[in-house]
């Protein structure tokens, strides 16, 4: 979301001067909003804003991205950054000598056991479990350290163990690693077991592999002990196999986040073994940020490796850690640095390589994929790219092939996330092409394995736009498929020429032509309607009369979902505005008053008793910067507002015409979100300082701070459940945290939901409190069953938006969920069955991002706020809206306008009296 920039604080003059320079660059570029810069720079808007804050030196990758997005001199700014970094770190340029004690993104191997610390207790538990059970499954989130635990922890203690990863052909891999073992019992360790579901496409092979593992641990003679390492989000996949379920009953071990003490050992002991020390301030900073945080270990290991290269003498310092990009920035900084250092043609090779190394699945998401050398072309440029990536430990290579060092790179590198989101359907076509090429070659070039018909046409069309993505093998396969298709067409033409029954063909052709003509006319009319519907939405802001009539005519001509959505988008009950971006809106519980607020620093109160004719009651001023959040207490007497001026404010709106400010809640950083508990006695406030603060507001004129709840990064949204017993919070750390706030002075964290792959912006509880919706920058909304908030389960993932989701709201009856996005659209979903949500409408009309939306208490109106400076009031009674579509039309469509949009159709203006 856009932010007005705060004045720079007095402090380190070098940093202030650096920040001033960045701000001047942005000013010369025309002061583009940070969300616009974010799209150019591949960093979040929050990170870019922080880069120009002057509080600390931003990472090099972030700095160069900011400069490039503003059209500045990248080389000059890179020199400036290195000068300041060297001055702050008080060190010489990065040191590369010596064997690093940290592994970066790569897992610790058996030979790295002397550097593997912090998991002694867990290794002991695993060994004990294995001594008592012949089958053990190790579950943990991505990035929890499962692979290192199995390799440097377990394997280092065993002599008779073999290691395998399933890959696309797990049965062959199993037989290969056990080929020379004879009948003696061994421990079979299967790392990354989830590849059975993500890379193995052959159901029979998958079933057989699981049979082999279970059979091995159950065999009385010649059997083996089995340990599998599985990503936690694949537990449900495992439970689809009864034989696995049986073994899982007693044979499970969970890998959770490291404790503070374990982290301390993992940080310091490898350095001590290498003759180095770790600065106390660095230890404290890392532990404070990483303790108890899931999926953080590869980020930590990579950041420590980069800090090692920047060490001062034999000391690892906080300054060097920050120069490397810190815990969350080091990985993206390294990847960006490698990318930016390559010439343009090699950057294209790097992009295509990473897309090939990533497997995508609607359920499993994006995961790393191992690529065999045979799948890649052998030429100097690709070799150079691979060398740079492996030198920086972003990829790992061996005799068989290459793979991404850790899936954290997929989740944490913004540029790669954008590449993956750009053309998912095209990537599915490409993956199928790769597999078809493999099969064709395996069959010795059998013509029966070639593409034909629609699949060939679709693939050729995609390949024409992505020629650099194809390997020579894939090009040969497509060339052979195309040649075979052309030969088939020639044979068909010769066959038709031999048919002599011309009269019968002519009769048949005549009948066919009549039917085809009617079909073609209908298709043409439907196409005109689709075009007119799109034109209606585009024309609405400038000519609502024309837009409504075009949409209505299009819907009558072809009553499709598209034309219906177009019509509804042009029929708002009313549109109200601000002088700048509108960031929040809320209804009072009685539905008679609506508050809107935004970047113009004002709160406007509206009488919406008749939503077709809203009347402004008052404008509240007092905030010094944009207002991002609003909430009204259940009794309707108190309004809370959240602003980037570092305050939340309380207003008495008992009489909305004479509303007055009654309290100011001061915070250390920008405040983004506010929420009242059901009884109105507690207010939750969240913001950029990584916290949620709970305030007692039973007397709103004298609020009292009750508790502070912590996130790892900025907290963008906070929401109480309808019964007030649970609080949900979400932010840039990609986590949704659930808190027990029955005693708001002693809140207890219940659980953390970590499935989102980017920052969070929206949360909403269903009216019965059983379902939680969450949405954010990963373009998805997710539904969770929070009946038991200690054990929430994911119900569904809603996809369809093509940009970040900023707003979510349930209708009062709980049957409809509305979502608003940076893609400017409002989508409505039927969630009567939250396990099977169905999209029912997509509403356009806003010309910029949808920042907030809310249903009126009676459910008859939904208000949508936008960065286009407006709030649109839309009826949810669609049939009534369509019936009254012509009420506000002043001039009917002229014949010329009709002919322009519906050429060849009889002139039938929809609002002609």
TrEMBL record:
WD repeats lie at residues 575-616, 620-661, 664-705, 708-749, 753-794, 798-831, 843-873. It holds the Pfam family WD40. Keywords: Membrane, Repeat, Transmembrane, Transmembrane helix, WD repeat. InterPro entries: Cro/C1-type_HTH, nSTAND1, P-loop_NTPase, WD40/YVTN_repeat-like_dom_sf, WD40_PAC1, WD40_repeat_CS, WD40_repeat_dom_sf, WD40_rpt. It comes from the Bacteria. CDD domains: WD40 (cd00200). Gene3D superfamilies: P-loop containing nucleotide triphosphate hydrolases (3.40.50.300), YVTN repeat-like/Quinoprotein amine dehydrogenase (2.130.10.10). Residues 21-77 form the HTH cro/C1-type domain. PANTHER family: TRANSCRIPTION INITIATION FACTOR TFIID, TRANSCRIPTION INITIATION FACTOR TFIID SUBUNIT 5. The chain crosses the membrane at residues 495-514. This is HTH cro/C1-type domain-containing protein. It comes from Saccharothrix coeruleofusca. Signal peptide: none annotated.
């Amino acid at each position: 979301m856009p932010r007005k920039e705060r004045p720079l604080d007095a402090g380190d003059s070098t940093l202030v001067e650096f920040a001033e320079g960045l701000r001047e660059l942005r000013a010369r570029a025309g002061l583009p909003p940070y969300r616009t810069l974010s799209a150019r720079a591949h960093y979040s808007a929050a990170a870019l804003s922080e880069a120009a804050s002057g509080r600390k030196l931003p990472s090099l990758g972030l700095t160069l991205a900011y400069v490039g997005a503003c059209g500045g001199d990248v080389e000059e700014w890179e020199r400036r950054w290195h000068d300041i970094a060297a001055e702050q770190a008080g060190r010489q340029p990065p040191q590369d000598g010596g064997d690093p004690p940290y592994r970066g993104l790569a897992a610790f191997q058996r030979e790295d056991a002397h550097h593997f610390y912090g998991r002694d207790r867990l290794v002991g538990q695993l060994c004990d479990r294995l001594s008592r059970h012949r089958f053990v499954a190790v579950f943990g989130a991505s990035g929890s350290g499962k692979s290192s635990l199995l390799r440097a922890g377990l394997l280092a203690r065993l002599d008779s163990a073999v290691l395998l990863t399933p890959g696309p052909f797990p049965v062959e891999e199993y037989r290969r690693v056990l080929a020379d073992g004879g009948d003696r019992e061994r421990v079979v360790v299967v790392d990354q077991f989830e590849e059975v579901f993500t890379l193995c496409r052959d159901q029979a092979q998958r079933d057989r592999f699981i049979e082999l593992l279970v059979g091995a641990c159950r065999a009385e003679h010649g059997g083996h002990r089995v340990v599998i390492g599985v990503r936690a989000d694949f537990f449900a996949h495992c439970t689809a196999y009864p034989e696995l379920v049986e073994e899982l009953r007693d044979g499970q071990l969970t890998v959770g986040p490291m404790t503070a003490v374990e982290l301390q050992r993992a940080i310091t002991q490898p350095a001590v073994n290498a003759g180095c020390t770790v600065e106390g301030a660095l230890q404290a900073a890392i532990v404070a940020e990483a303790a108890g945080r899931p999926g953080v270990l590869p980020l930590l290991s990579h950041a420590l490796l980069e800090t090692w290269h920047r060490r001062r003498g034999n000391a690892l310092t906080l300054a060097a850690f920050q120069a490397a990009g810190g815990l969350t920035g080091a990985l993206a900084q390294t990847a960006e640095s490698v990318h930016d250092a390559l010439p343009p043609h090699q950057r294209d090779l790097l992009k295509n390589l990473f897309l090939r190394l990533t497997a995508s699945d609607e359920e499993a998401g994006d995961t790393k994929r191992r690529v065999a050398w045979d799948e890649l072309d052998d030429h100097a440029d690709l070799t150079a790219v691979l060398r740079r990536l492996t030198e920086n430990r972003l990829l790992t290579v061996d005799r068989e092939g290459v793979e991404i060092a850790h899936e954290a790179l997929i989740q944490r590198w913004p540029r790669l996330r954008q590449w993956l989101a750009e053309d998912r359907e095209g990537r599915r076509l490409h993956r199928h092409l790769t597999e078809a090429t493999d099969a064709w070659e395996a069959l010795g070039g059998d013509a029966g394995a070639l593409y034909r018909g629609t699949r060939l046409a679709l693939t050729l069309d995609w390949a024409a736009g992505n020629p650099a993505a194809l390997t020579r093998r894939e090009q040969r396969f497509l060339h052979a498929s195309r040649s075979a298709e052309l030969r088939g067409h020639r044979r068909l033409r010769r066959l038709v020429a031999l048919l002599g029954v011309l009269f019968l063909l002519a009769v048949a052709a005549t009948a066919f032509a009549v039917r085809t003509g009617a079909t073609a006319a209908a298709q043409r009319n439907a196409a005109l309607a689709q075009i007119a519907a799109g034109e209606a939405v585009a024309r609405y802001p400038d000519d609502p009369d024309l837009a409504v009539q075009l949409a209505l005519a299009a819907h009558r001509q072809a009553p499709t979902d598209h034309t219906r959505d177009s019509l509804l988008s042009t029929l708002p009950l009313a549109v109200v505005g601000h002088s700048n971006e509108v960031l929040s809106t809320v209804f009072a519980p009685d539905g008679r008053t609506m508050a809107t607020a935004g970047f113009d620093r004002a709160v406007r109160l509206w009488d919406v008793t008749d939503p077709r004719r809203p009347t402004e009651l008052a404008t509240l001023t007092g905030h010094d910067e944009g207002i991002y959040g609003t909430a009204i207490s259940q009794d309707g007497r108190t309004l809370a507002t959240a602003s980037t001026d570092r305050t939340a404010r309380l207003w008495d709106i008992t009489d909305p015409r004479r509303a007055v400010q009654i309290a100011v809640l001061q915070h250390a950083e920008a405040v983004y979100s506010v929420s009242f508990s059901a009884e109105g006695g507690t207010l939750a406030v969240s913001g950029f300082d990584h916290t949620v603060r709970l305030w007692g507001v039973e007397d709103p004129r004298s609020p009292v701070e009750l508790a502070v709840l912590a996130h790892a990064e900025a907290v963008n949204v906070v929401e109480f459940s309808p019964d007030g017993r649970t609080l949900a919070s979400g932010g840039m750390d990609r986590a949704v945290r659930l808190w027990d706030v029955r005693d708001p002075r002693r809140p207890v964290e219940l659980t953390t939901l970590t499935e989102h792959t980017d920052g969070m912006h929206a949360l909403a509880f269903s009216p019965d409190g059983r379902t939680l919706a969450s949405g954010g920058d990963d373009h998805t909304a997710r539904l969770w069953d929070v009946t038991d908030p200690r054990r929430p389960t994911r119900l569904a993932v809603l996809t369809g938006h093509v940009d970040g989701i900023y707003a979510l709201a349930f209708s009062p009856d709980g049957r409809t969920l509305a979502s608003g996005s940076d893609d400017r659209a409002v989508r409505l979903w039927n969630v009567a069955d939250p396990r099977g949500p169905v999209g029912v409408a997509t509403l356009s009309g806003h010309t910029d991002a949808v920042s907030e939306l809310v249903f009126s208490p009676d459910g008859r109106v939904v208000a949508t706020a936008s960065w286009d400076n407006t709030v649109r009031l839309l009826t949810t009674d669609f049939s009534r809206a369509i019936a009254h579509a012509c009420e506000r039309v002043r001039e009917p469509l002229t014949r010329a306008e009709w002919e322009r949009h519906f050429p060849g159709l009889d002139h039938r203006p929809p609002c002609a009296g």
